[in-house]
Amino acid sequence: MKPSIRVRTPREIRSARRPRRHRCWGHLVAAPLWPMHDANLGTLLRTCDAVGACLAVPSFSWVDAALARGNTLREPTCVHRVGSPLHWLAAERKAGSAILGVELADEAVRLADLPAARRRTVMVLGHEATGIPPEALDLLDGAVEIPMAGTGSSLNVAVAGSLVLYKLAGLL
User: What positions does the domain tRNA/rRNA methyltransferase SpoU type occupy (predicted)?
Assistant: First the structure.
C-alpha cells in the first residue's frame, strides 16, 4: 500500500506561519550569556527565528562573526547585544520578564511539565562547562531541566536551548 503523505511546498509553509509584526518579537528571548562555542550561537539564532524569539548575546569580540557565520536566513533576525549579563538580567526582571534558567537544580521543572510562556520570558543558558554562574542564579525566577537517560549530565547548549524554546513557544 502506498503511503498517503503529501509534503507541503515552501509557499504553503510560509503562508501558514504567523505574520511578523516587527523585527523584535519580544515575547521570548534566548540568552546564552556565557557562551564557549561560537557554533552554538548560529544554531540558536536559527531556532529563535523558527519559534519567533529574539537572541540576547554578550558583546564579546567574536560573537558578531559567529552570528554572521551561523545566520543562513534571508530575513534579518532579532539580536540584542548585552554589555553586562547580570545587569541586563536584573533590568529584565525589574521590567517584569520571567527569567528561566536551563540548569540542573533541585527546584527545576522537568521539560515535559514546562508550560508555554504567557508573558515575556528570558531563557538563560550558561557556560557549556560550568553552567549559569552562581551570582546569576539569584536572578532566576525558576529553572527547567531536561531529563536524560544516558550517561551524560547535560546536552549541548544549542540543543538544550532549542528544546526549551520550542516548549516555551507552545510548539511542542
Answer: 36-166
* Residue 131 DSSP code: B
> Cα-flanking dihedrals φ and ψ of residue 23, to 5°?
-65, -40
Give the pTM.
Answer: 0.83
Helix (H) or strand (E) holding 135: helix 134-137
Residue 68: its H or E element: helix 63-70
Domain ranges of the chain: 22-168
Mapping DSSP to helix (H, G, I), strand (E, B) and coil, where does residue 86 land? helix
Pull the grid cell for residue 39.
557554533
Q: 10 Å Cβ neighbour count for 123?
A: 25
Q: Which residue has the cell 538544550?
A: 160
**Crossing angle of helices 63-70/38-51, nearest 10°?**
50
As a whole number of angstroms, the distance between CA 89 and CA 100 comes to 10
Are 136 and 100 a contacting pair, CB within 8 Å? no
Condensed to tens digits (0 to 9), the pLDDT of residues 67-101 reads 777 666 666 678 888 999 999 999 999 999 999 99
Q: Quick one: CATH architecture of 22-168?
A: 3-Layer(aba) Sandwich (3.40)
